[in-house]
Automatic annotation (TrEMBL):
Pfam families in the record: dsrm
A GO term for molecular function: RNA binding
DRBM domain segment(s): 32-101
Name of the protein described by the UniProt record: DRBM domain-containing protein
Gene3D superfamilies (alphabetical): 3.30.160.20
InterPro entries membership: dsRBD_dom (IPR014720)
Organism: Pleurotus ostreatus (strain PC15) (Oyster mushroom)
Annotated keywords: RNA-binding
Amino acid sequence: MDILLLLSLPIFKSSLFDGGRHNTNSTMPSSDEIVALNNYLQDRNMLASLSWSFQATGVGHEPQWTARCRINGVTRGTGAAGKKTLAKRQAAGAALRSLQEENEGE
């Protein structure tokens, strides 16, 4: 019986075990966008030009976070969410798309 339980355990593997990375909700950006932005900038020797700013508004127990992703001091992406990390992910994704679109035009 223990063997059956162990064999069936992966079936019940959830976000508890994988950090929620397999979320299929397309409106929730993945932390991979932050990694992708960092990799994109590092490949171009621009990682040192990356900076972040954060602002919380609203009531203390339910803040609305705004994250700004700046490259060479220019805001390239903005995100807003109830969680600081999610706002940062949104900003990273927006910045990455902006940089990629700019590169396509060159």
